[in-house]
């Protein structure tokens, strides 16, 4: 297991109605960076959802383990890794309700548990793909988030479903509806120039919806797509995008 190689501990956190799989070292620090996983293996194909959303390639975990300094932790999504066939796990929680209130509430509680465990005073939230939406949704309701970084993040799922002409995520919260609470948050949105899942123009449109004077920045990485080459180059990207 990736986390075990770096002596991170596996943690099962009871949060709201869900248990959530987390990985973290035993370190304590003033600031904790929490990485939020993407949607995982949510779909078998364009029409059929999977029975288990556990990611085949946990990119957010690989990002967390590649962070070159500071204290980091990783949060899987509800129903990933842990018995997706058990209640309350239903396929809606990795399809149309992937960003539902109960999902956000669960991850909010998980983030709090990791913060207390690390003795931290502030958080940096980093979300990959669908985890980017959740990083923003958490930042909108917490007062201790110093910075948000999204990596190939789904920032406005209504715009995303329109772009791909797929069914809207009707049971999900949308960061685009919370711009007033997010506008003054420090945030960087990293997108790949070759990403066809989350095209750069979607991130640009999301940030363009903020009022003047916001603290949001979009950076388009040439040659990157939705999967390549975030984890391979994360140490450098992290250093470049975590400075005040």
From TrEMBL:
The keyword Iron does not apply. InterPro entries: AB_hydrolase_fold, Dienelactn_hydro. Transmembrane segments: none annotated. The keyword Nuclease does not apply. Pfam families: DLH. Keywords: Hydrolase. GO terms for molecular function: hydrolase activity. Residues 85-153 form the Dienelactone hydrolase domain. This is Dienelactone hydrolase family protein. It comes from Aquipseudomonas guryensis. The lineage of its organism: Bacteria, Pseudomonadati, Pseudomonadota, Gammaproteobacteria, Pseudomonadales.
């Amino acid at each position: 297991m990736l986390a075990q190689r770096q002596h991170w501990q596996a943690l099962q956190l009871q949060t709201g109605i869900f248990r959530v799989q987390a990985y973290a070292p035993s370190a304590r620090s003033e600031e904790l960076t929490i990485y939020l996983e993407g949607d995982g293996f949510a779909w078998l194909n364009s029409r059929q959802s999977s029975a288990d959303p556990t990611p085949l390639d946990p990119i957010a975990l690989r990002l967390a383990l590649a962070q070159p300094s500071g204290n980091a932790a990783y949060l899987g999504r509800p129903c990933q890794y842990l018995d997706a066939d058990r209640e309350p796990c239903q396929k809606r929680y990795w399809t149309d309700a992937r960003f539902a209130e109960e999902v956000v509430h669960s991850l909010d509680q998980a983030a709090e548990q990791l913060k207390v465990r690390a003795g931290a005073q502030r958080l940096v939230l980093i979300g990959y793909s669908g985890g980017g939406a959740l990083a923003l949704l958490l930042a909108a309701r917490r007062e201790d988030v110093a910075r948000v970084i999204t990596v190939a993040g789904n920032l406005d799922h209504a715009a995303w479903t329109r772009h791909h002409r797929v069914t809207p995520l009707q049971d999900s919260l949308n960061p685009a509806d919370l711009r007033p609470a997010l506008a003054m948050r420090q945030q960087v949105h990293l997108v790949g120039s070759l990403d066809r899942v989350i095209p750069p123009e979607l991130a640009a449109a999301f940030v363009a919806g903020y009022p003047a004077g916001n603290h949001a920045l979009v950076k388009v990485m040439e040659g990157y797509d939705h999967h390549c080459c975030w984890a391979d180059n994360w140490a450098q990207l992290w250093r470049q995008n975590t400075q005040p």
